[in-house]
Specification:
The protein has no helices and ten strands. By secondary structure, it is an all-beta fold.
Length: 120
């Protein structure tokens, strides 16, 4: 039975003693199936297609966490990284509401390990 995948985000800007704008939001995404995946994938310095376990077609949502301590990884729907590349710094993560079943990653200096959680 399909459920929901909930994403939350908080952004607070602070410079020196001045606190700038702060926003927080939570969004529940209705899933169309009960398919989920959670795995670790090595991302090379060349375009590497991300894998989503037993999910076929486009997942509804994908969470990608860069597990590397030094290198960043870029994520895009194109293997040439020209559509809308997202840079994930070392130790950071990103959540995407995806429109395609093919998503690519590319590490900057050496291969990185990423945790990839997806649901459909």
């Amino acid at each position: 039975m399909p459920g929901t995948f909930t994403i939350g985000a908080t952004l607070t800007a602070a410079v020196a003693e001045n606190v700038g704008p702060s926003v927080s939001t939570t969004k529940a995404i209705a899933l169309t199936s009960d398919l989920t995946s959670d795995g670790i994938q090595s991302i090379a310095t060349a375009a590497t297609a991300l894998t989503f376990g037993n999910i076929t077609g486009a997942p509804a949502v994908v969470y990608i966490q860069n597990l590397d301590a030094t290198n960043y990884v870029e994520i895009d729907s194109s293997n040439t990284f020209v559509n809308f590349p997202q840079k994930i710094p070392a130790g950071a993560a990103i959540a995407l509401l995806v429109q395609t079943g093919t998503i690519y990653g590319r590490a900057n200096t050496s291969a990185v390990r990423c945790r990839i959680v997806a649901a459909k």
